[in-house]
Write a structure and sequence with these properties.
alpha+beta, single chain, Fructose-1,6-Bisphosphatase, Chain A, domain 1, 24% strand, globular, disordered C terminus, binds 1,6-di-O-phosphono-alpha-D-fructofuranose, 8-stranded mixed sheet, 30% helix, D-Maltodextrin-Binding Protein, domain 2
């Protein structure tokens, strides 16, 4: 089985970019080790601090953030990093060209139940125009040069795109290397499996309410086929299932908290996952626009997410056209 670096060399990925990806993987191996140690690592449980989004941080969130940030900056190949756990962009080498946005431990509430979590990353280049701090990162998803995630599940996997399809690698703990296990990830166009947090149903906008209602009617309804539902409560692991056996993943806007109609973050959740899904032949949208076309205005910006098998996403988007009076910023119950 092929190791990661020769595979990326074969794909003509620039050497410095390979080094940045490899650095993320060195940090990921350490995170994977600590996660597998569980309570033995002494890092479980919440700290008393809250992160910039007001959510309670888990110790491992803090540790993973620190590890990834410092290792990336030490390479001297990274100009700046942005993280879910950092208020502001952290500057690195002024002469370097890479920008890395990451969620160090997505799905961290799964840590205490020994469920799957992951590190999501998006790599951009310094823009041509003069920019500083946050402005550096305010680029569309289309400008990503690489993106992926490391899933810490029963096995530790890297799912990666550098714009030439999607590959999956599995960590062989006996040699400490990621080996190529799926050469070309391809999403089936059709699916009978959806992922959404159903407990938010009464807060959704009417397009989503009508769409899910038709899925639930199964073969007795207009869709004339039965659908199954799965929800791991970690985007990284829910999208991994979609990339592995097709499906549709949704976290739509809702009116549960009018201050915060969307939950998922554009720069380090929605954009990198959209890049993977599109490279695997799928589709990704907010319901109203393609996610990777969005011009961000903030590094911690949130978006509505609908992604996965192309034909199913299209079916869902049909409901957004039909009920287009409902906009995500004014959800109706
Ligand atoms: P945490 O990393 O704070 O646990 O949040 C994970 C997440 O943002 C995303 O990965 C999941 O899809 C989503 O939350 C799950 O949210 P709920 O199940 O709480 O609605």
């Amino acid at each position: 089985m092929q190791r990661l670096i020769p595979v990326l060399n074969n794909d003509h990925v620039p050497l410095h970019l390979i080094s940045v990806i490899n650095t993320l993987l060195i940090a990921a191996k350490e995170i994977s080790f600590r996660l597998h140690q569980g309570s033995l690592a002494g890092t479980l449980g919440s700290t008393l601090d809250e992160n910039v989004q007001g959510e309670t941080q888990k110790k491992l969130d803090v540790v993973s953030n620190q590890l990834i940030k410092s290792m990336l900056l030490e390479t001297n190949l990274v100009h700046a990093v942005a993280s879910e756990e950092e208020d502001f962009v952290v500057m690195g080498n002024p002469d370097a060209k890479y920008l890395v946005a990451f969620d160090p431990l997505d799905g961290s509430s799964n840590i205490d139940i020994n469920g799957s979590v992951g590190t999501i990353f998006s790599i951009l280049e310094k823009p041509d125009h003069p920019a500083e701090g946050t402005e550096l990162f305010l680029q569309t998803g289309d400008e990503q040069i690489a993106a992926g995630y490391i899933l810490y599940g029963p096995s530790t996997m890297l799912v990666l795109t550098t714009g030439n399809g999607v590959k999956m690698f599995t960590l062989d703990h006996s040699i400490g290397e990621f080996l190529l296990t799926v050469e070309k990830v391809t999403l089936a166009e059709q699916t009978q499996e959806f992922a959404i947090n159903m407990s938010n149903r009464r807060f959704w906008t009417s397009p989503m309410e009508h769409y899910i209602s038709d899925l639930l009617s199964g073969e007795l309804g207009v869709r004339k086929k039965n659908f199954n539902m799965r929800w791991n409560a970690a985007m990284v692991s829910d999208v991994h299932r979609v990339l592995s056996r097709s499906g549709i993943f949704m976290y739509p806007a809702d009116c549960k908290n009018p201050e915060k109609p969307c939950k998922l973050r554009l720069m380090y959740e929605a954009n990198p996952m959209s890049f993977l899904v599109e490279q695997a032949g799928g589709r990704s949208s907010t319901g109203y626009e393609r996610i990777m076309s969005i011009q961000p205005t903030d590094i911690h910006e949130r978006v509505s997410v609908i992604m996965g098998s192309r034909a199913e996403v299209d079916s869902c988007l049909g409901y957004y056209k039909k009920y287009q009076c409902d906009r995500p910023d004014t959800p109706k119950v």
